[in-house]
Specification:
This protein has eleven helices and 19 strands. The protein is an alpha/beta fold.
Length: 420
């Protein structure tokens, strides 16, 4: 499961940062990031990312998780796609979180280095063995220093640690290796109409794993990431204005945000007309409301994609709605597993605190093996078993293993899955 393989080959897929580097070599002058009045092309973004990777290696944290407590704009502009070139797993820490939660995440993840800025330096009481490093100081330290040797990165190297919301108990750190992320990006690029030069909105908070899908599927295909800052994300009108001004063609967002944007656009008569692909993500069930239908009537040929999967597995099912939105069901299913289906189904599970479990341990495995992460079989949510949650029509157990942290689902007669 942690080997990046597709259904028609057994050779490893390129990893996320390698896909960025390929675009950097092929199209160095192509726009990679647009953030307000500022922008970076692929070569400029790559150079900034190189400096950060260099600084992290000098800090002696290669192969370890590194916390990032930075304001949204600073972090998105300067961390770059090759932060993992320093073989450091990224632990996003949202400044909007309470101090107590931030401290718990730092301690649980085992990070020895917290990358931050002066205004946030006192937010988190650091445990013994953890030190803070200001981003500006880290970058200035590499001006004249020779670069240390870059460690080898493979499919099993940890890419990031993301924390669940804690709605079913204590927030849990989900450790994502490079291999599953490579599978996800490979699948997303193969099934998206967006490609070189197309613009994707960066809407998700960095503490939400979909942000990695937004960024790396865009850069892997040579597209441009349009960053929505925190102020813009809190205003539906400002967000629609950004979508139109920047000619954004694709966005990933939860259903509740899609519904709010559609309702606002309908009320004011201003539509994000450049959109051609809208992907709903998260746990909220997709509903095709009158406002959503009205939005897609205005978007010429746009598709609505319903993707589903918890943090431990990322995207597990996908449903694409095309054509006349008046013919779409009110409550679409979450679709079928990604196609082509993976060949490999072996698993490795573990967590930020416990580390990987022995290969073959399926306690936290998922049906969609290339998207499954290192879960935590030793810390399941209260009341859950090894394979909870999935039932086939008629009440029999489905032939699928599933993460032990998501809602339950049923399989319809057509083969699609619906959550409940």
């Amino acid at each position: 499961m942690n080997e990046a393989v597709s259904s028609d080959r057994t050779t490893p897929l390129p990893l996320a940062h390698e896909l960025f580097e390929a675009q950097r070599r092929s199209h160095p002058d192509r726009l990679a990031v647009l953030w307000g009045e500022r922008s970076l092309d692929y070569e400029e973004l790559g150079r900034e990312a190189d400096r950060l990777a260099h600084a992290l290696r000098l800090a002696g944290v290669a192969g370890e998780p590194v916390g990032g407590l930075l304001r949204t704009g600073l972090l998105r502009r300067r961390r770059g796609p090759r932060r993992t070139q320093g073989s450091c797993a990224y632990v996003p820490l949202d400044p909007a979180y309470p101090d107590e939660r931030l401290a718990a995440m730092v301690g649980d993840s085992g990070t020895r280095l917290l990358l931050t800025e002066k205004a946030l330096l006192d937010r988190v009481p650091l445990p013994d063995g953890t030190r803070a490093l200001l981003l500006d100081d880290a970058l200035s330290s590499v001006e004249d220093a020779p670069p240390p040797a870059a460690p080898r990165i493979g499919p099993d190297t940890l890419a990031y640690v993301i924390y669940t919301s804690g709605s079913s108990g204590v927030p849990k750190g989900v450790a994502m290796p490079h291999g599953p992320l490579a599978n996800l990006i490979d699948w997303q690029c193969a099934h998206s109409a967006c490609g070189g030069g197309d613009r994707t909105l960066q809407f998700s908070a960095l503490s939400f794993d979909v942000s990695f899908q937004e960024m790396f599927s865009t850069w892997a295909s040579g597209g441009t990431l349009v960053v929505a800052d925190d102020t813009t994300r809190r205003s539906w009108q400002a967000l629609i204005d950004l979508l139109n001004t920047a000619s954004v063609r694709r966005m990933f967002l939860p259903f509740v945000a899609l519904q709010a944007i559609a309702a606002h656009a309908r009320s004011v008569g201003v539509w994000p007309l450049a959109l051609r692909e809208v992907v709903t993500v998260g746990y909220e069930q997709l509903q095709v409301t009158p406002a959503v239908r009205a939005l897609f009537r205005r978007l010429d040929g746009a598709v609505l994609v319903n993707q589903y999967g918890p943090s431990e597995t990322h995207v597990v099912t996908s449903l694409e709605l095309r054509g006349d939105p008046d013919a779409w069901p009110d409550q679409p299913s979450i679709g079928l597993g990604p196609s082509p289906a993976p060949r490999r189904t072996s698993s490795t599970s573990g967590c930020a605190r416990c580390g990987p479990a022995p290969r073959g341990n399926c306690a936290s495995a998922a049906r969609c093996s290339p998207g499954a992460t290192w879960g935590c079989p030793r810390r399941p949510p209260p009341g859950s078993g090894p394979y909870p949650g999935w039932e086939a029509a008629g009440g029999s157990t489905a032939r699928a293993t599933w993460s032990n942290s998501g809602p339950t689902a049923r399989c319809s007669s057509s083969g699609g899955w619906t959550t409940r």
